[in-house]
Amino acid sequence: MSAKREVTLVYDERVLNHAPDVNAAFLPGRLDKRVRGILAGLNVQWKYPEHPGRIQAILDLLVREPVEGLRFAPGKSATREQLARVHTTSYLDDVFSLRDKNAWLDVDTTAVSPGSIEAAEVAAGTAIAAVEAVCSGSTGSAFALIRPPGHHAEPVRARGFCLINNVAVAAAHAQAELGCERVLIVDWDAHHGNGTQDIFWADPNVMFFDIHRASPFYPGSGNLHDVGAGLGEGTTVNVPMPGGAGDVAYLRAFNEILVPAAEYFKPDLILVSAGFDAHWYDLAMNVSFEGFAAMTGIVQSLADRLCEGRLAFVLEGGYNTESLAHGVRSVLDVLAGGSVPEPRVCGMEAVEEAIAFHLSAFAGESSGE
Ligand SMILES: [Zn+2]
């Protein structure tokens, strides 16, 4: 059992106001027609998977099964100046022009509702608040409970349910205002963080480690040989995995790639793009709750050794609300000082129990000839 630690959940309920409804009247335009054409071709009724119920499921679980010592702190809205550190002026003009409207931003299914632009500003600002709390020493670690997610958002466009790249905004803020020169971003969402990679592609002061399901799985980027460019060559670290990869493979990648990379890089701050769609309920990968907890233990130990414990998580994906909620809780439990479980191959404990149960029946004399 580790010592008790302070962990703060940073949350602002305005993130619930982003609620695209595919049946609402959207802006007239070619993109809307094209998306409607795609949706009409589906065999099933399509609902927007990145919905407010994701956050509600997490909050409900934390009421039913509280994490001892977990503190709550309010989030806030990011300023345009803070967003402009990682997004272009023309992109921000485009996004802000959609305030109070329903619109499609891309055919990768990113849409907005009247509350979405404010929710996106609050998501990025709440990621900043989490980093500020960690850097000021007011908490040991922090978890920004936010949506819409961010890691697919590129400097110039929205993608994959993401409007603003929250983790990138938080990293850039830590560099500009909080005295953190070097930032390590660990992205364990099942999908590659193409936007975060783009933003810091040539930046030697941000190391981006991303373990994800390999192309052609969405968004199709993040190949092994994509390592950054220019001064940033070597600070992008991609670990593409086959579908169905689980705890053992993930933890080996963390221990044998992330740990030496982080020790080499020597960050002043560690951020985690924490998606929970790598859990097997989400059908892409095979990570367990113990796996998420063990990965948390590794990044926490890196933060302790390399940057005085400065560690902040931001929520990314995770669309099965049960695995999302329990995944977040398993992370918070470790951050609060709970023990770090040793993940095992799924089914092994049950097999061992079954061995113990059955084996005595077959000991001694054979029943055959
Ligand atoms: Zn994802």
TrEMBL record:
Histone deacetylase domain sequence ranges: 49-334
CDD domains in the cross-refs: HDAC_classII
Pfam families listed in its UniProt record: Hist_deacetyl
Family: Belongs to the histone deacetylase family.
Stated name of the protein: Histone deacetylase
